[in-house]
Amino acid sequence: MTVATETKVKLNKIEKIKAEKHGLDIKEELTKFAEIGWEAMNEDDLIVRLKWFGIFFRPVTPGKFMLRLRIPNGIFTSEQMRTFAEIIDRYGEDGSADITTRQNIQLRGVHLQDIPEIFQQLEAVGITSIQSGMDNVRNLTGSPTAGIDPDELFDTRELNQKLQDLITNKGQGNYEFSNLPRKLNIAVDGARDNSIHAEINDIAFIPAFKDGEFGFNVLIGGYLSAQRCAESIPMDVWVHPNDEVIELSAAILSVYSENGLTEGLRENRGKSRLMWLVDKWGMNRFRIEVEKKLGKSLYFAALQDEITLEKRDHLGVHPQKQEGYSYIGIHIPVGHLMAQDMFEIARLAEIYGNGEIRATVEQNFIIPFVPNDKVETFLSEPILQRYSINPTPLTRSLISCTGSRYCNFALVETKQRGLQLAQELDAELNIPDRVRIHWTGCPNSCGQAQAGDIGLMGTKAKKDGQVVEGVNLFLGGKVGKDAHLGELKEKSIPCDDLKIVLKDLLINEFGATTK
Ligand code: SRM
Ligand code: SF4
Fold this sequence. Notes:
By secondary structure, the protein is an alpha+beta fold.
């Protein structure tokens, strides 16, 4: 590992904190923190280092922490879901959960004093929250229909689990990959519809045949941030599935981490994502350095990849690869859940399916393995009145980041506002096709505004001489085949004027008519 303090490079604040004491070093202190309480904690431990364990201090709700888990490929069991629900249930109204834009689950309202017990509960069901925040690899995303999609090219489940095991040392914490210059996102797609947003991941593996053999082409450097948004670019590398994906990921992480200091990535956090290293070296040198790390040459990319379809949202009833079974996508409005909902979804998965629940990057759930002769009864379950399998067009494709209710970066409230607007516009307009609206509370773009047909990014605006909550409007984001980022079209629209702006836009650009 690089010893940052020995060089003359001007380290940024977070690097200094890491050099003083690494995030994983507080593992043995978690019980002590739980005993003394967050108010008595050192600020760097509280605000920065706890994130190595997925524990996020929320300045908006001090004392009520957010716990970000790791759900590789977004797949978990009804038993795990019940554990998540039990954890938040004890916090009453404060306890809630969110499905994230990386197929992951975050728990809210958590008290620090309960962390040791919560970690035991999670460990007992095989879930970890380690390295889910700060300068770590985030949740590994993969095809949400892996292993059940009749048209899939590759089942990504085991590979993503292996990647997580490598990166986190099977949930125990791994110093080798947890002092990156910045966060890093990895996605593996085994389907044809780019279900994982390859274009905005730092490392994306997309299906491609080379000389008739299945494998992945590798894209590098995609990311969104307040300073810059970059689409991923080809590394001109093709790998076989499984071991070569793991080896290559490890080599890239090492190259990124080990050169972070000498290449200046540890100075300015605004210029520290993987793409900055690629910019500095050029892809050719980047590729060579990765080969050196691997100790072998890499294959050149396959000429063509297999991303040939528009992105699916998986809602509704779909036949599985396994004859006689269906998977059912249910819509969870803006991905927000309370404990009782989670108990109920766990029950559905158990009595109708095989107990599995799958999260999508659209912040919804899929329940697989429902026997076809049970589908009708499944659909008559009362909870499906709220979690529809066929919601109205705008509500259906709404994505939203956390926003000001819990996130201190937010410039606007997102989830409630976004949902209300979508429902009102759905009621007033006939909209021929889905329109994907992505809300994000600030330029960090966790809600991926640039990926939406319409993207709305929180900002400040002026109305009647007053500073009010507003949005910057993005248009033209394309996902799936030929994915590309949308562009900023209009700045600082006051949220109070947004409904009329969206209505005009839907009528003029998306073929909507008034009811
Ligand atoms: Fe994010 C920081 C929430 C996906 C770009 N993100 C944050 C923090 C941790 C800020 C904070 O401390 O409050 C937010 C926590 C709020 C909370 O209480 O929930 C936060 N990000 C989220 C989630 C929960 C949004 C959601 O509602 O789904 C997503 C969690 C994913 C996960 O399971 O790990 C989430 N964040 C994303 C994505 C989308 C993606 O990965 O596809 C992006 C853009 C893609 C990317 O990273 O390139 C994203 N988040 C950021 C950034 C900007 C990164 C940068 O390079 O500047 C920040 C700020 C930072 O890291 O300094 C950030
Ligand atoms: Fe918070 Fe901004 Fe991310 Fe939304 S986009 S969760 S407001 S950091």
